Amino acid sequence: MDNQNRPQQPAPVMFANYILQGNMRAPLIALLFAALPLFGWFSYVIVAFVALRKTAVAGLWVLAWAILPSIVYIALGRVWPGVLNIVAGGLFIWLLATVLHKSASWLRVLQIAALIAIVGILLMHAIHPDLVGWWKNVINNYMQAQVSAAQKAGISAAEQQRLTHMYTTLKQQGWLNRAAMFATGVITTLMLASGLLHLIIARWWQAVAFNPGGLQKELHNLRFDYKLVVALGLCALAIWIGWTLAWDVLPVILLLFVISSLTLTHRIVRKAKSGWVWLLAFYSAVILLSPYSFGVLVLVGILDCIINFRGRLHLA
């Protein structure tokens, strides 16, 4: 009778309690998701969740099972996709979850994540000294392949001419060369953002199951200080001097300002009536007005580092 009157737990809470029982449930479920197309990303969420809730060793044990499909990929000859998925995916997410588990500080997590990303960029430039030239060839070959594919697809002569003119214009105006200068940085930043998103989902899951509202409090108080603005200034100076590598570091630093702006926005609308409506409108505007909206987010993040909107608006 008591079980019938007891309110049913939400699905995330039930699933969390289920996979945390024993030592093999989480690894096997992570392996199952890793082997499923389109759902492999969730295996690393489970890795981060276990590392956050239990220990780093427990999370590493789950990771060892979650990367088995990637090991099979490597054995079948797809070496780089498999290695990249293991290192930049699983190990990176597990490490960030371990840092968050020990420090309970998103600021520390972001600092370490950005540092790892920058070190990775430096290593790629060290391994391949002419990385910009390599990207130029990749982008040019890709654009030429697109034009050739369009011609083989039998599209109209007018459309073929339009594509050829667009490719020629981009090349003549130097846009393809400019894209090559920060292509490594953009891809690294996207991977960094992906890892952080996995961690946020895992922390949300942990908060829903064991600490309601915990993630909201952590992220709302996230703020960088003037040191990040100094880092941006040094990066801009390096670009002005002509240090090509600085173009790849720039997107990593800009991402931190964007994250700071997003957390500030959530903090402002937290107590607003129908706050979710404002957030929906905000993210819709960010998507529809991109890439210009990201410039605004970066600017707000820079100003927040200097002015501290949370303190001045009594939001801290």
Specify the overall morphology: globular
Identify the quaternary structure here.
single chain
> In which range does the helix fraction lie?
over 70%
Largest beta-sheet details: none
> How many β-strand stretches?
0
Walk me through this protein's architecture.
The protein is mainly α and 316 residues long. The chain has 18 helices and no strands. It has 2 domains: 1-103 and 184-211, no CATH class; 221-316, no CATH class. The longest helix has 28 residues, at 183-210. It starts with a helix and ends with a helix.
Summed up, what is this model?
By secondary structure, the chain is mainly alpha-helical. The chain is built from 18 helices and no strands. The protein is 82% helix and 0% strand.
Q: What's the helix and strand layout?
A:
Elements: H1 2-5, H2 11-19, H3 25-35, H4 40-53, H5 56-66, H6 68-75, H7 79-103, H8 106-127, H9 131-152, H10 157-172, H11 175-181, H12 183-210, H13 214-220, H14 226-241, H15 245-269, H16 275-288, H17 292-307, H18 309-312
Helix pairs in contact: 2-12, 3-4, 3-5, 4-5, 4-7, 4-12, 5-7, 6-7, 7-8, 7-12, 8-12, 8-15, 9-10, 9-11, 12-15, 14-15, 15-17
Keywords:
single chain; 316 residues; mainly alpha
